[in-house]
Design a protein that fits this description.
This protein is of the alpha+beta class. The chain contains 3 helices and 11 strands; from the N terminus they run βββββββββααββα. A 6-stranded antiparallel beta sheet has the order 2-3-9-8-7-4. Strands 1-11-10 form a 3-stranded antiparallel beta sheet. The protein has a two-stranded antiparallel sheet with strand order 5-6. A hairpin with a 7-residue loop joins strand 7 and strand 8.
């Protein structure tokens, strides 16, 4: 996975020495790949059986169109580590590995509302939240890559060193005009 450019809207950021394997999402939520789900208290495991994760459209006798999510195991959990108070997590295990989406509940009772739903709706909503966050991260990555590509073409990427570290930032067009005048 390629390194994510630093967020440098108005300030300089250090360039990391290695690739970052984290997808950022609007609101600073994170989808990250993990080796296991240790460190999470599972609140609900909707549709634990693979066979239950087949959704039929319409009445089962009249329609033979089905969508299967058998390969995607979803759990709703709370992180148990230090600093995880007020956070909720959706744990996803599929052929691509184990992934975690963590987010703040804020003042809204998201967990209690989600846990009050029947299992099929819990699964569907948790899956939809996870997939939407994944799509947002893809869009954010593409937008940031375009921003850096445009800045490169326009010659607005500025680099400097200080204290043995490298700093990179993108100038605004106004900053570039001021610098060249």
């Amino acid at each position: 996975m390629a390194a994510v450019p630093p967020d440098t809207r108005h300030q300089s950021s250090a360039i990391p020495n290695r690739s970052i394997h984290v997808m950022t999402v609007i609101g600073h939520n994170l989808i990250r790949r993990v080796e296991n789900f240790d460190g999470y208290e599972v609140l609900a495991h909707p549709l634990p059986s693979r066979d239950d994760r087949v959704f039929h459209r319409g009445e089962s006798e009249t329609s033979h169109v089905s969508v299967t999510y058998a390969s995607h195991d979803v759990r709703i959990a709370r992180p148990t580590g230090i600093g995880s108070r007020g956070r909720l997590a959706i744990l996803m295990h599929h052929g691509g590995g184990r992934h975690v989406l963590e987010f703040y509940e804020s003042a809204l009772p998201i967990a209690s509302a989600l846990l009050a739903l029947p299992q099929r709706e819990q699964y569907a909503l948790a899956y939809a939240l996870f997939e939407q966050a994944d799509e947002c991260s893809d869009g954010a990555r593409a937008a940031e890559a375009k921003r850096w590509a445009d800045a490169f073409v326009d010659g607005r990427i500025r680099k400097r060193r200080s204290g043995g570290k490298r700093y990179v930032h993108i100038e605004t067009p106004d900053e570039k005009t001021l610098r060249l005048s």
